[in-house]
Amino acid sequence: MEISLLAMDLDGTALLDDHKTFTPRLYAALSAAAQKGVAIVPTTGRQYAMLPPAVHTGADWEDLCVLCNGSEVRRLRTGELLEAHYIEADAAGQMIEIAARMGLSVELSAGGLLYLTRESWDMQREHEDALYFHLNNILTTRGRTVSALEEVLNQPELALDKVNLPYVPQELRAEVEELLKAAPVSYAWSSPHSVEVTHSQATKANGMLAACRILGVDPARTMAIGDSGNDIPMLKAAALGVAMGTAPQEVKDAADTVTASNLEDGAAMVIERYILGAE
């Protein structure tokens, strides 16, 4: 099977554990794939403003990226918005009510920022071991404190790409999941304790398929690589879905094959094998 488009997750897949850089081997594999004519599309839960410089200055990639778990498809170099599915205020309000009822922290993601109350911020600090990167690398630069999240929902022309529940205790996970299943939304567990809620049509799978439409690529010639619950839809939708070695079992079960970890150049290995034809 010839691959024409690679949908590649970033954190835990392409990036090292510093969440910023690629290994030289992966950089070389991406460059060779791009030179072969393969469209390389970063497909991430991140907002455009949170993409690391390595993504903008790395291999000679196709000029597209899928963001916020499929809420947006943008031009990688300019940030031009090509397609979007933003979560409605009513649905976001339901998520805020669920969080309040269950005593959970909640964030609204819009316009490159994360909005949360001081109470929600303090609740996250109680779980700093699990949320260290989020607290110290994301909220410190992108977090904005508001007195009430309804202030954000009432903003005109709000482009709300995600609602995050950053920390759900294991004992509440099943109950939260049942409530989300009954709501008019999509959701994905980006870690065992963190769930991200989007518009019902916003998934990484739909983002990948949108990139195919824009670029004129047959979905039967796609490959996707990922490591988390939010990658499951695109691993199933791609012609070849690849799970990282550190992925949870449900992610591995959704994939066609499993590679090594991000620290062991797992993404580079499968690009070399399935795109570049290395043995």
Q: Write the H/E string, N to C.
A: EHHEHEEEHEEHHEHEHEEHEHEHEH
Strand content: 15-25%
* Quantity of strands, as a count: 14
Proportion of residues in helical segments: 25-40%
Shape: globular
State the secondary-structure class. Answer: alpha/beta
Name of the CATH architecture of the largest domain = 3-Layer(aba) Sandwich
Please tell me the total number of domains. 2
> What would you report as the Rg, rounded to the nearest angstrom?
18 Å
CATH superfamily of the largest domain: HAD superfamily/HAD-like
Supply the number of helical segments.
12
What integer is the average pLDDT?
94
Enumerate the strands of the largest sheet in spatial order, edge to edge or round the barrel.
Answer: 8-7-6-9-11-10
- CATH fold type of the largest domain: Rossmann fold
The stretches of 5 or more residues where confidence is low (pLDDT under 50) are none
What does the main sheet amount to?
A: 6 strands, mixed
CATH class value of the largest domain: Alpha Beta
The end-to-end distance, rounded to whole angstroms, is 15 Å
